[in-house]
Design brief:
Blueprint: E1 3-7, H1 12-23, E2 27-32, H2 37-40, E3 45-48, H3 54-65, E4 73-76, H4 94-119, E5 126-130, H5 146-166, E6 172-177, H6 190-193, H7 200-213, E7 221-224
Parallel strand pairs: 1-2, 1-4, 2-3, 4-5, 5-6, 6-7
Length: 232
Amino acid sequence: MPTAVVTGADSGIGHAWVKVLLGEDYDVYTLDITTGPKLKALPCQSFKCDLNSQDSITQFATHFNSLNKPLDLLLNIAGIMAPKPSDSLENVTSTTLLQTFQTNTFGPLLLTQSLLPRILEAQTPRIGLMSSRVGSIADNSSGGAYSYRASKAALNSIGKSMSMDLKSKGVVVLLLHPGYVISGLDKSGETERNPDAVLPEEAARKLWAVVKSKGMESTGTFWHREGFELEW
């Protein structure tokens, strides 16, 4: 039975992706800052983990690494988005920037680092990093969302470097864009009003199809949920 670790699993895409993996007989370990009744009702191992805290990450990693089981799939899905008015050029603060980067950028890097010994033991390990198209510098035609946009651009850079460092070790690293998803991440309501927005279940199913279809030839690349590659 393959093993997966999924962050941001209490709601949204993370929760939906956990269900997909359970349906494919994965042994799933879920991480989130809260573990609600919907997550606890699933047949998986649930852990409270704050990606802003090195101690919290280390505590989970120490437990997981002690199990001596290979980690076939790590999905770094957890993310936050500041309200757009407070993430503007006029209003963004160092507090907003730091909080956003800690969750969206530093957390995925440090969690991956802490679980690397078990990732390297898997036969065909994969790491998925939930980015966003707004992190594409080439695709930026609207501005704004300073902390969120920059945190995802930085995550793309980290993912690319990670793919280079792990290529010789057989680890596939993929950057993923879920598209517009009705998940509660965007508090402005704009996502819900977008005609292209989908439910988390559809996003998770399509993203999983992308991840499963990519091999080492695609490591370090950036993919839309609909299966086409995105520019940096």
